[in-house]
Write a structure and sequence with these properties.
By secondary structure, this protein is an alpha+beta fold. Helix content is 56%, strand content 23%. It has a 3-stranded antiparallel β-sheet. The protein has a 3-stranded antiparallel β-sheet with strand order 6-7-8. A two-stranded antiparallel sheet has the order 1-4. Strand 2 and strand 3 form a beta hairpin.
């Protein structure tokens, strides 16, 4: 009789241990446990660590609270200025209310993905091509607001949305390349014309200085001769300047000057008749 009682007690203890083990659960640090008791949501959400549920009565669902990185498939669309583009993006979101993420929507990941695709197509239709290429920060904020509005009711918070790439048709790429080339050529011509204007002003100033000091023109001529002679592969024809003749005339002795006076008088005086 005693042996039967001991065996029965051991059986009860074993069944109790198995029952307790069946109800033991472990929730990780980045998870939250949502318990449904007989299909009804309980008030408390189980935090990280060891927790117990009633076996065969409670069902524990673990919800990940980490930030999810989800690529948005590339969407084809026509911009406001009638350009066909293909845009893809990436979305970062996380669950902030585990109970709502399970109760309010069947699959919150799929719902966020579909909402991101439709919002991306809407943004493409409302934007110009220049905005898609250069003003992405503003478009990212608008896209984030469009996705975050319905996602808040699902217990999901949109952390960030980024447009990754904008694919253009080859014809549009060639047109943009020609436009960029024409713009660069225009800027080059403007810069060249500005340089010519500045150079002309400097040359005019230099001409004024040389007109006041004729020796400066001779020095500039000698510098040009030195620069050309440095090449050693050209023939230089140097005209004899009139200013140098005048310098030599002033540097000649007095007797040469007296001999040259009649010629000077004949050059500058009125004609005489014999």
């Amino acid at each position: 009789m005693v042996e039967e009682l001991m065996s029965a007690g051991a059986a009860v203890v074993a069944v109790g241990a198995v029952y307790l083990l069946a109800g033991a659960r472990v929730v990780k640090q980045y998870e939250r446990g949502v318990v449904f008791r007989l299909g009804r949501l309980t008030d408390t959400v189980r935090g990280p660590g060891f927790t117990m549920v009633v076996p065969f009565v409670d069902r524990l669902h673990k919800v990940n609270l980490q930030i999810v990185t989800m690529p948005v498939p590339a969407q084809d669309g026509i911009t406001r200025d009638n350009v066909t583009v293909r845009v893809d993006a990436v979305i970062y979101f996380k669950v902030i209310d585990a109970a709502h993420a399970l109760v309010e929507v069947e699959d919150y990941r799929f719902a966020v993905s579909q909402m991101a695709q439709t919002s991306l197509r809407s943004i493409i239709g409302k934007s110009d091509l220049d905005d898609l290429l250069s003003n992405r920060e503003k478009l990212n904020q608008g896209l984030e607001l469009m996705i975050d509005s319905p996602a808040v009711g699902w217990g999901v918070q949109i952390d960030r949305v980024e447009i990754k790439d904008v694919s253009l048709p080859e014809t549009m790429k060639r047109s943009m390349a020609r436009q960029a080339e024409a713009d660069r050529e225009r800027r080059a011509r403007v810069i060249n014309a500005d340089a010519e204007l500045q150079a002309s002003k400097k040359l005019a100033e230099a001409a004024g200085v040389m007109s006041d000091q004729p020796a400066a023109l001779q020095l500039r001529l000698l510098q040009t001769v030195v620069a050309v002679a440095a090449e050693k592969n050209s023939t230089l024809v140097l005209p004899f300047p009139v200013e140098l003749l005048r310098f030599l005339e002033r540097a000649t002795p007095q007797q040469a000057g007296t001999a040259a006076e009649p010629a000077t008088v004949v050059e500058s005086g009125p004609p005489t008749h014999s």
